[in-house]
Design goal:
CATH topology: Cytochrome p450
Pathway: Secondary metabolite biosynthesis
Protein name: Cytochrome P450
Number of strands: 4
CATH class: Mainly Alpha
Strand order of the largest sheet: 1-2
Number of helices: 17
Cofactor: heme
Helix content: 40-55%
InterPro entries: Cyt_P450, Cyt_P450_CS, Cyt_P450_E_grp-I, Cyt_P450_sf, Cytochrome_P450_fung
Bound molecules: protoporphyrin IX containing FE
Keywords: Heme, Iron, Metal-binding, Monooxygenase, Oxidoreductase, Signal
CATH superfamily: Cytochrome P450
Number of domains: 1
């Protein structure tokens, strides 16, 4: 009992010392922010869900007159919110040489042993290798090699929706999984309850909690503000975060390892289908991939499902929702698609994107209205920076695609793959389906609820 009390006293002393240290670090001049408590900062009034909405409100209320740039701290951890596209471009893109690190995450990184994951790495040589490998396959030109996969899967999707429209979301999830698993590992997903998809899904939804979102939620984990808490033993009262981190980290690692090993077996058996992983494991210059290189390949491929599945599903879901709520827009889009089909006597493909200005505009509108990643991912600075000292004036209306996928040197490497996959799903759905509200027993429309989930992916 005495030793527990002594430990608690020491821990309390260390926490206060950390807060004082953090606050001393943060005594420089930052943009304005919401009312803040001494020591706690905004920890007590920080929202638990849809925090981007509160940040936007705070920006309007307390931020600079243009752009709503605000800054605050949570238990000494400083955050600056870029509420306008202009500020995001000016800092994250134009000054990307210093704005491309990720903040050090004790929970989502060190404790979960995810330091080598692309989402945790700062802008170092390892990260540059990951991004180079992805760029080789997913640049605007290179990603065209996956168009056949995206088209085939979009047709399967529409077939399945026609067969059981009530399972729409399940079909969309299967589609995203099938595209990514084929692209990343050459693995064919045939069933909704596929084994590898189940592992990957477990990585995303552990006990119905999204690990990634939970582990990186601002203000959620005390250990992120006070990394010293990582030394608290797992059995210590209140140290449940440690066992969570261990289990979650293991789940995410297995999610990458199993399909990676499956590709290696296929290569050994001479049956490997060309894929992102198989190409990297058998380089065209014929050199032998050593353990260090293989580790990088494992982490790069592993990031694809994690980053690409939920985000793409979110956008296509929002597309279906938009079509259901705006039948006139849907009719106009269907008219564009039908006209093409009737005049060309063939299905449209991704080569025909330019012939569909209205569908393209809908995709932009969906990305603007319901961004899959409304908060993006945190960036942190490699060195201190002064931003003008004054704030910016009016900004032009940018293309939503210029910010829905992030910024600068950390911009989403899967943007082209995602956009093409979403586009072809939209076009084939418009061609084959009419999207409308469900009806009740009396034939009356059931009004759907518009609600977004909170987290890194909404
Ligand atoms: C509609 C679909 C998608 C959206 C909205 C989206 C959005 C984003 C955003 C906002 C970021 C953070 C960028 C930043 O830090 O500034 C990001 C990062 C990332 N995305 Fe995507 N993404 C999508 C699809 C994909 C796909 C299909 C893949 C893989 C094939 C992918 C792979 C990644 C990776 C690996 C990162 C981390 C990059 C880094 O930390 O350097 N994403 N994405």
């Amino acid at each position: 009992m005495l030793s527990v009390m002594l430990s608690l006293t020491i821990l309390g002393g260390l926490i206060i010392a950390c807060i004082v240290f953090n606050l001393a670090q943060g005594s420089k001049s930052y943009p304005p922010g919401p009312p803040s408590w001494p020591i706690f900062g905004v920890a007590l009034n920080h929202p638990k869900t849809e925090f981007w909405r509160t940040y936007a409100d705070w920006g309007r209320k307390y931020g600079s007159s243009s752009g709503g740039l605000i800054s605050f701290h949570i238990l000494g951890r400083r955050m600056t919110i870029l509420n306008s596209a202009a500020d995001a471009f000016n800092l994250l893109s134009k000054r990307s040489s210093i704005y491309s690190d990720r903040p050090f995450a004790t929970m989502a990184g060190r404790l979960m042993r995810r330091e080598k994951s692309i989402f945790c790495l700062s802008y170092n040589d390892r990260l540059k290798t990951y991004r180079k490998l992805m760029h080789q396959s997913f640049s605007s030109t290179a990603s065209q090699m996956f168009w056949d996969v995206e088209q085939e899967e979009a047709l399967i999707l529409v077939d399945r929706i026609l067969a059981s429209p009530q399972d729409l979301v399940e079909h969309l999830r299967r589609n995203a999984a099938a595209v990514i698993m084929k692209v990343a590992y050459g693995y064919p997903v045939t069933r909704n309850d596929d084994h590898f998809v189940a592992i990957a899904e477990e990585g995303m939804c552990y006990s119905r909690i999204q690990i990634a979102s939970m582990a990186s939620r601002p203000g959620k984990w005390l250990v992120d503000s006070f990394p010293i808490l990582r030394f608290v033993p797992e059995w210590f009262p209140g140290a449940g975060f440690k066992s969570k981190a261990r289990k979650w980290g293991q789940t995410l690692y297995e999610q990458s390892l199993e399909p990676h090993n499956w590709v290696k077996e296929q290569i050994r058996a001479g049956t490997a289908v060309p894929s992102f992983t198989s190409a990297l494991l058998q380089p065209s210059d014929g050199h032998f991939v050593d353990a260090e290189e293989e580790d990088k390949i494992l982490y790069t491929s592993g990031a694809l499902y994690f980053a690409g599945a939920d985000t793409s599903v979110s956008v296509v879901k929002s597309f279906f929702f938009t079509m259901m709520m705006h039948p006139i827009v849907q009719h106009r889009a269907q008219h564009e698609v039908d006209l093409f089909f009737m005049s060309e006597h063939r299905l449209p493909t991704l080569h025909d994107q330019a012939a569909f200005p209205y569908v393209n505009a809908i995709l932009k509108e969906v990305l603007r209205w319901a961004p899959a990643s409304p908060f993006g991912l945190f960036h942190s600075t490699a060195s201190p920076d002064v931003y003008k000292g004054r704030f910016l004036g009016a900004e032009p209306q940018p293309d939503p695609r210029d910010y829905a996928f992030g910024f600068g040197r950390r911009i989403c490497p899967g943007q082209h793959l995602a956009e093409h996959s979403i586009w072809i799903q939209m076009v084939y759905s418009l061609l084959a389906l009419t999207i409308s509200k469900a009806v009740d027993a009396d034939g009356k429309d059931i009004e759907p609820e518009i609600a977004f989930t909170s987290g890194v992916v909404s």
